[in-house]
Structures are given as structure tokens and as C-alpha cells.
Design brief:
Family: Belongs to the VAC14 family.
Pfam families: Vac14_Fab1_bd
Strand content: under 5%
Shape: elongated
Subcellular location: Endosome membrane; Microsome membrane
Helix content: 55-70%
Number of helices: 22
Organism: Micrurus corallinus (Brazilian coral snake)
Radius of gyration: 31 Å
Keywords: Endoplasmic reticulum, Endosome, Membrane, Microsome, Repeat
Low-confidence stretches: 306-357, 444-480
């Protein structure tokens, strides 16, 4: 009644005095009963102010939020109730204060008391309704807080975060996709939560983001998210790895050559997956598509020398002689709902014209280092070794001049690979060696060898494979 009179008299000073008294002498008092009375008084004050409560929100909210951390669960509940009434009266005027409200609510979401949690959920729903109706939401100032809170390990806090991301994604005027690089890593970490419900919610959020990415690829910051995907493509959790691999597949196919600078990291993540057994068949299949799509991005223009020379024309191959990768299969049903809707059913890539013109540099040294590492590793699976050799063959065809700088370091392991247990590996290795020997990059305008170690077939002292099957394969390839 007193506040209403002050409102009628337009006495802002008196109103602030009442609020300050309720805050300092009651809500922030040392005595629990006084704190309870102060919270009830602040809520009543807000109701009395009506539409004018927006002018005093800072003074009304701060003491209530401080009570969110009270040791007494009943006081925390009364604080929830008081803030609910304040927010309900203020409605849209509360939006500029959203960050402090979100911060307080994110902590209450993990409250051990069921009554407090119930009260915070009621307040949370009201706040979501207000935000979805508002055109004044400040996403820029909110993102740093979201980025910080998304790394919480508490299940209830994670659930709270994901629910807000889903709400913000659904608002047409809020473009959360622009800030996806800020929260993508946190989302993938939440995807590994022990709670099935939280994993499902996180899959849904990631699925919505992927839909948006496929709808408007020109506006997506692919490069800023590439390394995040590389990390999670190597996760020990199958769901995280599969989802990240599905995202990587779409990124390579949508962004095209924009992804080339990250090739060494992508190959580090993808190549080991090619040797997975049937228990991880879904991951293996998506990894195969990633591998083939990435390989097709390497073109003769990547062989342009520093001196400005034109790249060597790629040697003409007979039909069927070009390396043939595994056909891309339909994305597995278990990998994000949206991945089954992908238009990319094969390893063929769609590169938007704007992205084709993007000037990118192929980090050939990094790629060769990764390939060399896998060949030297005795634990590398057969399919991975074959994929590595296919990559080397492809690189010697598309970028022969630059690849010949690496021939000295690669040659010993290529010779050693001729004694591999797998006939298929040996055959692919022979193809690489034959390409090195016959490549025009090893010649200097038909007059001897270039500075790189050009090789002639008759100069190669190749160990003969011991198995009969391998011997037949080598002799038949020589006959050709």
C-alpha cells in the first residue's frame, strides 16, 4: 500500500528507500526469519510497482539472487518464489538482466533440495517464455557465460544448459549458429554424459545445428570448428566419435577446400578408423567417406611451385587404374537423426563456387608426416596401411613436384612395406614405387634427374615377396 502511494506521487526516492530497507535490513539480515520477510517484501513491492517495476529491477533482483546461495534450503526456495513474482510482473523489462538471472538459475538447477529445484524449474520456464517473446535479447553478452557454464560436470546443470540452447535455437531472431565455435566443444563433452536423457537432448541440439549448417553453409565458420571436430573424432566414447565423424563428413563436403589446411589433423583422426572391426562399423563407414572426400580435394593446383611454375599435368591413367576408394555408404541410422537425411550418399563432394575460389594452402609436409607415421607404426591395421599408400599414390599424381621433396625420407619405409604380410598392401606399395619411378617430376626436361631422388624401375632393388600369391601378383604387374 505504501509503495502504491509513492507510485501515485511519482516519488522515486521514497520507493528506492523502501526497497533498500527491505534489502539491507531484512533480505540480507543475519536472522533467517528477517531474510524470509525481506524476500516476501521485495516480491510484494514489485507487484505494487506493476509496470514501473522495470525502473527498479537491479535493486529488486540483487538481494534475491544473493539468497540463492543461502545455506537454508527454505530460504533458497523463498528466493525462487520472490524472483518468480518479480520476473512475472516485469516480463520483457527483465531481459537486460538476463545474464545474472541465468547465472543464478544455473546454480540452482543442481540444488540437492527437491523443493528448491522445483521452484527453479518454474522460474526457468517463465524466463524462457519471456526470452522467446523478446526482440531485445543480447546474445553477444550471453555467449561468454554460456561458454563457461557449458563445461559443468553436473548432470542437472548440463540439462539446464542444453534446454536453453534448444530454446535459443528455436527463436527465429536469435542466430546462435554464428557462435557455435564457442560452444561446440562443450556440446560434444556433454554428449558423453552418463544420463541417457541428457545425451538425447544433446544429440537433438547438435542435430538442429547441423540442419542449419546444411541449410546455409555460406555463413558457417567451418575453419574455426575443424580442430574441435578433429579432437572429438578421436574420442574413446563411441557416440561422441560417431557424431563428430558425421560432422566432419558434412564439413568436408560442404566447405570443400576450406578444410584442406586441416588435412593432417583430419587424417590423424580418420585413418585409424578404417581398420575398425564390425563392432564399430558405423564409424568406419563414415570415416571412409571422410577419407575419400578429403582426398578428392587435392588437385594439381596444389603442386604450384614457389617459383611460380605451372603445375605438372597429371599423367593420364587408363580407365580403372586411378586409385579406387571404397564406395561411400548411406550414413548409419545411429548417427544423428539429420545425418540420414544427408544429400551426400557417396564420396562425391559438393563445393560451393564461393568456396572454390578461396585461397587455401595444402600443408603437404604435415600430411606426409602423418602418412609416414602410420606406415612406421607396427600396430597400424591393414586397411589403414592401404589407405595410407593410396594417399601417397594420389599425392604423387596430383602434386608430384612437391612430393618428390619427401621421396628420400619415404623411400626406406616404402621398400620395407614390400615385405608386408598383406598382398593387397604390397600391390599398392608397388604402385606407389612405380609412380615415383615414372613420374615426370623426377626428370629435368628429359635430361636426367631433378634435385629430388627420381628413380628408374631398373634401379630399384626390390625384395621379392615370399608368398606364391604375392609372387604371381608382382610378376603379373611386371608383365603389364
Amino acid at each position: 500500500k505504501l509503495v502504491r502511494e509513492f507510485v501515485a506521487q511519482n516519488s522515486a526516492a521514497q520507493i528506492k528507500h523502501v526497497i533498500q530497507t527491505l534489502s539491507v535490513e531484512f533480505a540480507l539480515s543475519q536472522h533467517p526469519h528477517s531474510r524470509k520477510g525481506g524476500l516476501i517484501g521485495l516480491a510484494a513491492c514489485s507487484i505494487a510497482l506493476g509496470k514501473d517495476s522495470g525502473l527498479y529491477l537491479k535493486e529488486l533482483i540483487e538481494p534475491v539472487l544473493m539468497c540463492f546461495g543461502d545455506a537454508d534450503s527454505r530460504l533458497r526456495y523463498y528466493a525462487c518464489e520472490a524472483l518468480y513474482n518479480i520476473v512475472k510482473v516485469a516480463r520483457g523489462a527483465i531481459v537486460p538482466h538476463f545474464n545474472v538471472l541465468f547465472d543464478g538459475l544455473s546454480k540452482l538447477a543442481a540444488d540437492p533440495d527437491p523443493n528448491v529445484k522445483s521452484g527453479s524449474e518454474l522460474l526457468d520456464r517463465l524466463l524462457k517464455d519471456i526470452v522467446t517473446e523478446s526482440s531485445r535479447f543480447d546474445l553477444v553478452s550471453f555467449i561468454p557465460l554460456l561458454r563457461e557454464r557449458i563445461y559443468s560436470n553436473n548432470q542437472y546443470a548440463r540439462q539446464f544448459i542444453i534446454s536453453w540452447i534448444l530454446v535459443l535455437e528455436s527463436v527465429p531472431d536469435i542466430n546462435l549458429l554464428d557462435y557455435l565455435p564457442e560452444i561446440l566443444d562443450g556440446l560434444f563433452q556433454i554428449l558423453g554424459d552418463n544420463s541417457k536423457e541428457i545425451r538425447k537432448m544433446c544429440e537433438m541440439a547438435l542435430g538442429e545445428f547441423l540442419k542449419e549448417i546444411k541449410k546455409t553453409p555460406a555463413n558457417v565458420k567451418f575453419a574455426e570448428m575443424a580442430n574441435i571436430l578433429v579432437i572429438h573424432c578421436q574420442a574413446s566414447d563411441d557416440l561422441i566419435q560417431l557424431t563428430a565423424m558425421c560432422w566432419m563428413r558434412e564439413f568436408i563436403q560442404l566447405a570443400g577446400r576450406v578444410m584442406l589446411p586441416y588435412s593432417s589433423g583430419i587424417l590423424t583422426a580418420v585413418l585409424p578408423c578404417l581398420s575398425y572391426d564390425d563392432r564399430k562399423k558405423n564409424i568406419k563407414e563414415v570415416a571412409a567417406v571422410c577419407n575419400q572426400s578429403l582426398m578428392k580435394l587435392v588437385t594439381p593446383e596444389d603442386d604450384e611451385a614457389d617459383e611460380g611454375r605451372e603445375p605438372l599435368p597429371a599423367p593420364q591413367r587408363e580407365a580403372g587404374q586411378e586409385e579406387a576408394g571404397p564406395k561411400a555408404e548411406q550414413p548409419p541410422s545411429g548417427c544423428l537423426d539429420v545425418s540420414t537425411e544427408s544429400d551426400f550418399c557417396s564420396a562425391s563432394i559438393f563445393v560451393p563456387a564461393s568456396m572454390e575460389r578461396t585461397c587455401v594452402t595444402l600443408n603437404l609436409d604435415g600430411i606426409v608426416q602423418v602418412l609416414d607415421c602410420h606406415l612406421h607404426d607396427s600396430t597400424t591395421g591393414m586397411m589403414t596401411r592401404i589407405a595410407v599408400l593410396k594417399w601417397l599414390y594420389h599425392l604423387y599424381i596430383k602434386t608430384p613436384r612437391k612430393m618428390f621433396r619427401h621421396t628420400d625420407s619415404l623411400f626406406p619405409i616404402l621398400l620395407k612395406t614390400l615385405s608386408d604380410d598383406s598382398d593387397e598392401v604390397i600391390l599398392k606399395d608397388l604402385e606407389v614405387l612405380a609412380e615415383i619411378a615414372s613420374s615426370p617430376a623426377g626428370q629435368r626436361e628429359g635430361q636426367g634427374l631433378q634435385e629430388g631422388p627420381g628413380l628408374r624401375l631398373e634401379q630399384l632393388d626390390l625384395p621379392i615377396p615370399t608368398s606364391a600369391k604375392s609372387s604371381q601378383a608382382v610378376s603379373s604387374s611386371g608383365a603389364k
